[in-house]
TrEMBL record, chain A:
This is Amino acid ABC transporter ATP-binding protein (PAAT family). It comes from the Bacteria. Residues 2-236 form the ABC transporter domain. InterPro entries: AAA+_ATPase (IPR003593), ABC_ATPase_HisP-typ (IPR030679), ABC_transporter-like_ATP-bd (IPR003439), ABC_transporter-like_CS (IPR017871), MetN_ABC_transporter-like (IPR050086), P-loop_NTPase (IPR027417). Signal peptide: none annotated. PANTHER family: AMINO ACID IMPORT ATP-BINDING PROTEIN (PTHR43166), ARGININE TRANSPORT ATP-BINDING PROTEIN ARTM (PTHR43166:SF37). PROSITE patterns: ABC_TRANSPORTER_1, ABC_TRANSPORTER_2. One of its GO terms (molecular function) is ABC-type amino acid transporter activity. Keywords: ATP-binding, Nucleotide-binding, Transport. Pfam families: ABC_tran.
Automatic annotation (TrEMBL), chain B:
The keyword Ligase does not apply. It is found in: Cell membrane. Keywords: Amino-acid transport, Cell membrane, Membrane, Transmembrane, Transmembrane helix, Transport. This is Amino acid ABC transporter membrane protein (PAAT family). Belongs to the binding-protein-dependent transport system permease family. HisMQ subfamily. CDD domains: TM_PBP2.
Length: 240, 221
């Protein structure tokens, strides 16, 4: 579904990704863990080219999005993204947040967009918040709306950029529950996270990144239970 | 002093002042509207990543912010527009062109600041949903930016209202023009100038209240 080959990304002089290779298969939940500054968020943001790709290949559904001529908007309709800081549109109601892109981009008519939005809100447990504004919601509720907003485009894959890192501890659970339910339905997900419990329980595969490389990858039981790389061992000993 | 006021002369000219103040308001409203459109494009142009898209707006804003409005009015009325049309245009045309261009330059900076004040995550969220740069700008960024721009836009409108008095220099019959007319004919000074000062004051106070009201209604997201 997504194939990354020798991906490099530099910000000026600073090389953040130094040659990343990986494959995301359909229906897989891939969790990306690693210390801050390891390049995991940058890696994720290269998958829908929110960051310009310095060199290498990122092939999404067979299209190399590193190619400057590619129609990014079209690719992005299929690749949903959930941000650490939610990034809901503060001047719009929850319902409008969710229906805006389907209406403007997919040209879905108002009625069916609204119907789908209400369905998605039910799914994330926020049926009663359709007419609320983002600043009236808690962090956990905002993030669930953000997930519903991404789902409204019917993406083939969802990217999560530390979706629970900006949340108060008591709200982490409600967001992870929604993500677990999505995983169970077979949604393809790439999740950058510090929630080791989630990675272990829900992840089909875990990538450990450090210093701009994928240092180690494997099934969660293997990577958490018996890490091979010294840096992985070191990192896990600090966070577990 | 109050007893020395020539009420008779004032009442004779007052209808002209009223006529003039209507023109003042008309010119201000039209120039603010055109200025907003010019400012929107110039402001967005200045934010472009392409140097050739920034070039013209940068020159435009630089010139109109860096030279006196009074000089701009004279230049446009007596030099630029006659060179284009072959004859001196009606003062109303020159006045609107000069004030709009001047307002547009300042409003461009207001737009630029407003757009830049919106969190980068808003654009990223919109783009990640497949919206184009333009769709994101018009549906997500500008509606939020405009709310934050209301106070400086209100200021600009007030400035413009007052600065329109400079148009008396090209004999545009706005309120200051009639005050000068009265002063010239009657050799009075207090009566015409204090009167129109109060008229301007009333209008700017009303405008300030209007902006406050709009801020309360649409502001703070």
């Amino acid at each position: 579904m997504i194939t990354v080959r020798n991906l490099h990304k530099s910000f000026g002089q600073l090389e953040v990704l130094k040659g990343v290779d990986c494959e995301i298969r359909e229906g897989e939940v891939v969790c990306v863990i690693g210390p801050s500054g390891s390049g995991k968020s940058t890696f994720l943001r290269c998958l829908n080219r929110l960051e310009e790709i310095t060199s290498g290949e990122v092939s999404v559904f067979g299209t190399n999005i590193a190619d400057p001529k590619v129609n990014l908007n079209l690719i992005r309709t299929e690749v949903g993204m959930v941000f650490q800081r939610f990034n809901l549109f503060p001047h719009m109601s929850v319902l409008d947040n969710i229906t805006l892109a389907p209406g403007k981009v997919r040209k879905v008519d108002k009625e069916s967009a609204k119907k789908q939005a209400l369905e998605l809100l039910r799914k994330v447990g926020l049926s009663d918040k359709a007419h609320a504004f983002p600043n009236q919601l808690s962090g956990g509720q905002q993030q669930r709306v953000a997930i519903a907003r991404a789902l409204a485009m019917n993406p083939k894959v969802l990217l999560f950029d530390e979706p629970t890192s900006a949340l108060d501890p008591e709200m982490v659970g409600e967001v992870l529950d929604v993500m677990k339910a999505l995983a169970k339905e077979g949604m393809t997900m790439v999740v950058v996270t510090h929630e080791m419990g989630f990675a272990r329980e829900v992840g089909d595969r875990v990538l450990f990144m450090d210093q701009g490389y994928i240092m180690e990858e494997g099934k969660p039981e293997q990577l958490f239970g018996n890490p091979q790389n010294e840096r992985t061992q070191n990192f896990l000993s600090k966070v577990l | 002093m109050l007893s020395n006021i020539r009420w008779d002369a004032l009442s004779q000219y007052f209808p002209l002042f009223l006529k003039g103040i209507v023109t003042t308001v008309e010119i201000t409203v039209i120039s603010v509207l055109i200025g907003v459109i010019l400012g929107l494009f110039a402001g967005m142009g200045r934010l472009s990543v392409h140097w050739y898209a920034r070039l013209v707006p940068n020159l435009y804003v630089g010139f109109f912010r860096g030279t006196p409005l009074f000089v701009q009015i004279l230049l446009i009325h007596f030099a630029v527009l006659p060179a284009i049309f072959g004859k001196t245009p009606p003062a109303m045309v020159s006045g609107i062109v000069a004030l709009s261009l001047n307002a547009g330059a300042y409003i461009a900076e207001i737009f630029r600041a407003g757009i830049q004040s919106i969190d980068r995550g808003q654009m990223e969220a919109a783009r990640s949903l497949g919206m184009s740069q333009g769709q994101a700008m018009f549906n997500i960024i500008l509606p939020q930016a405009v709310r934050r721009m209301l106070p400086p836009l209100g200021n600009e409108a007030i400035m413009l209202l007052k600065d329109s008095s400079l148009l008396a220099a090209i004999s545009l019959p706005e309120v200051t023009y009639y005050a000068k007319l009265m002063a010239g004919k009657t050799y009075l000074a207090w009566e015409p100038y204090l009167t129109i000062a109060l008229m301007y004051l009333v209008l700017t106070l009303v405008l300030a209240r209007l902006v406050k009201f709009l801020e309360r209604k649409y502001g703070t997201v």
